[in-house]
Predict the 3D structure of the following.
Amino acid sequence: MAEPESPHPITVAIERRVDPARTVEATSWMQAGTDLASGFDGFLGSGWVRAGEASDLWYMLYRFRDIATLEAWEGSPQRSWWLESGRAFAREVRVERRTGIEGWFDAPFALDVETRPGSDETATSPVRQPIPAAPPRWKQAVTIWLGFFPVNLLASWLLGYVPGFEALPLVVRVLISTLLLTPLMTYLVLPAVTRMLRPWLQRPRRLAA
């Protein structure tokens, strides 16, 4: 069965084993893959880190606008050529996709941000740690509710002052309010709430006795 299309950005995280004797070659290879992906429609960003100086684990992440643009990149001859060129020293061991609502809770890599001396450019230095799992569903539900309730309450109160709004059919009122609130929730409210709650969302689960 074909995978259903998603209107949400899709994040792909890949774990690879890389020959430690070919680190310099692998570094150029990983950067070449990032450069190739950035030229495709729907590309939203990518990055890669090593688990440690003595480790052969490398993590790569990229994000596309939707399933169609992701599959265009994954099925492209450019990516096939790139994968083949690294087959001698890089072996893929795990691939994870996160789509839909879980995309708001992604925390693939932690980044230390610093400014280069004598420059206005900002450099990011990745913290060498694996990709954490998404928070439990109930935490995601609580986070969404904490953002949705006050926004919906405020919108309902403000729309009540719009002349003639209350006289509209219920379906039309709901349509208008959801058209207004969905982008607001997606691009402003949920990112802000997840940033505030990130320590709680990423707290490790307690193991049962």
About this structure: Strands lie at 10-18, 43-50, 57-64, 90-98, 111-115, 122-126. Residues 170-196 form the longest helix (27 residues). Residues 14 and 21 are 21 Å apart (CA to CA).
